[in-house]
Amino acid sequence: MEKTGYRIVTDSSADLTLEEASEKNITVVPFYISLDSKEYLKEVVELEIRELYEKMVQDPYLFPKTSTPSVQDYIDAFLPIVQNEMDIICICISQGFSSSYQSAINAQKLVLEEYPHRRITVIDSSVATALQGLLVLEASAMARDCVPYDKAVDCIEKLKGTGRIFFTIGNLEYLKHGGRIGKLTSIAGGILKIKPVLTLKEGEIINSGVARSSAKAQERVLSLLKDYLSEEREALKSYSFTLGFGYDYQEVLELKERFKVSFDKDNSFNGIPIMQIGATIGVHIGPNSLGIGIIKRYQDFI
Question: 111 with 76: CB under 8 angstroms?
């Protein structure tokens, strides 16, 4: 890929594969994962996501923890870029979920003290996981298309408000353990054997209903997507989107088939991408997550 005037940096919450990040010229700063609260390993680099989910499925009482990238991690990511005479746009997971953004801000200040002629902009994506990944990929496309730096930063700020993830999870136990919901709600969910359906937007996880089966949960996810598109009066082709899953790849293939029936009868979106939801969010929602992320394409804001 040709060098552009700026490079995109993100944390591993964006759930890009190493191959995809390399192909798109994106620098990824890993989160850390611990299975025992003692040893912390770099997400993907030192502990594969599939391996993590397998351990969680085998032991339902295993609640792994994540740790934010350090200031030094971001300095190590920023320095080679500015030393190569390039600017940086860094897109971090929502501050509501992690302090990764603050680590990047602190690193920004230190690096710019040494390289004051360069530009580093740190952006709170207000989202996470596959939706953050979609935002990062739109930013990467702007760098590829030589969109001017200031215009790209402004566009990213506008784009992030259009993003949504409509998803379902296996149960509420992981959200309860992470302090995301009240204990009573978690107990009720466990007794009723429901599958919660949730919406992630602008840094908030919102209750969007419940379902009694995986099939019904998938139907509800697609219904939420349809309602959102109707509300915005936009066609699906105006958006970038992806299907996301945790452990069960077969489930995401089933969702893909339902998506085709509801939205893609002419097979226009046969190549819809699939992303595996990583540890940063996976440890909070559990291995049995499934959903669809959607965000406006950058061309509508340029």
Answer: no
With a cut of 50, say whether residue 100 has pLDDT above it. Answer: yes
Neighbours of 234 (CB within 10 A): 15
Residues 73, 201, 247: CA angle, nearest 5 degrees: 65
pLDDT at 185: 55
Tokens 């760098």 found at: 143
Q: 22-36, 189-203, 253-267 — which is least confidently predicted?
A: 189-203
Determine the pLDDT at residue 146. Answer: 95
Q: What does the DSSP assignment read for the chain? A: ----SEEEEEEGGG---HHHHHHTTEEEE--EEESSSS-EEEBTTTB-HHHHHHHHHH-TT---EEEPPPHHHHHHHHHHHHHTT-EEEEEE--TTT-SHHHHHHHHHHHHHHH-TTS-EEEEE-S--HHHHHHHHHHHHHHHHTT--HHHHHHHHHHHGGG-EEEEE-S-SHHHHHTTSS-HHHHHHHHHHT-EEEEEEETTEEEEEEEESSHHHHHHHHHHHHHHHHHHHT--GGGEEEEEEESS-HHHHHHHHHHHHHHH-TT-TTTT--EEE--HHHHHHH-S--EEEEEEE-GGGG-
Which of these ranges, 4-13, 77-86, 148-157, 169-178, has the smallest mean pLDDT?
A: 169-178
